[in-house]
Amino acid sequence: MSIIVITTIVIALIGLLVGAGLVFAGEKFKVETDPRESAIRDALPGNNCGGCGYAGCDAMAAAVAKGEAPVTGCPVGGKDVAEKLAAVMGTEAGKMERKVAFVKCKGTCDVTKNQGNYVGEQDCRSVVLGGLNIADCGYGCLGLGSCVTACPEQAITVKNGVAVVNRSRCIACGLCVRTCPRGLIELIPADQFVTVQCSNRDRGVTVKQVCAVGCIGCSICARQCEADAIVVDGSLAHINYDACTQCGKCVEKCPMKVITPPRSVR
To answer: Is pLDDT of 132 > 70?
Structure first.
């Protein structure tokens, strides 16, 4: 028998042994998968946006199947997906509140002071990481559109230097929230229209020097609120959306007009 034939036989035997070993190991260390996980994954929208707090839809499906994540955890799928997941898990979806992204800045180009014309990469994160100051307000929207690029639904545009969210298109995936380097975007109830459009925590006199519509922490809004839904913390007003009745009294009395009016008075 020639050396070539012997070598071929030996290699074939080794291959068979390795293959058998892999099959044995696969069976020995096989991780059983909950059959519900596959059904849950099929029901999820597949955006893999991470809005649920997990790495993607696969991770979300595994967490729901294990009972580690709620069936209402997918902000993109909303109520419809929550009900499908609840059916798979044999539970009730319960009430699920739709949310939308909100930009906490009203400092458009005509009400703020710029330090100069910025020429460089059109990315807000690069500006912040580089320690560049392209506007007097160190808290406001940079208007370079990192959130616009991040939004998979084209629900954000930059108008007059400030990012604006189209509520009807927003799916509340949260990608813009995680992208904004100044933390100006948050997810709020979709039916909430009384909001403080400012993030500046400086004292009132400093805010007035850089923005004509910034919150000055005067607390007039808090005193007007009969529901005790507004507090002023660090010279900046905050609204408790769970308590807010959207009566609009704070909107009427705000001297800086930085609180957006409810839909009924728009």
So the answer is: yes
Question: Nearest Cα to 263, choosing from 168, 165, 211, 192?
Answer: 192
Q: In the chain, what percentage of residues exceed pLDDT 90? A: 66
pLDDT per residue over 182-221, tens digit each?
Answer: 999 999 999 999 999 999 999 999 999 999 999 999 999 9
Identify the structural domains of the chain with CATH numbers, from first to last.
35-89 (1.10.15.40), 98-190 (3.30.70.20), 192-266 (3.30.70.20)
DSSP string, 70-111: -TT--TTTHHHHHHHHHHHHTS-------EEEEE-----TTT
Whose CA is closest to 85, among 131, 51, 36, 132? 36
How far is residue 133's CA from residue 122's CA, in Å, rounded to a whole number? 14
Judged by DSSP in three states, 165 sits in: strand
**Alpha-carbon distance 63 to 108, whole Å?**
42
**Neighbour-count burial of 61, counting CB atoms closer than 10 A to its CB (0-12 exposed, 13-18 middle, 19+ buried):** buried
The confidence score (pLDDT) of residue 188 equals: 95
What is the average per-residue pLDDT within 10-17? 76
Beta strand 236-239 pairing with 185-189: unpaired
Give the Cα separation of 77 and 178 in Å (integer). 19
Structure tokens that stand for 245 in this block: 């009745």
21-76 tens-digit pLDDT: 777 666 655 556 788 999 999 999 988 888 888 989 999 999 999 999 999 999 88
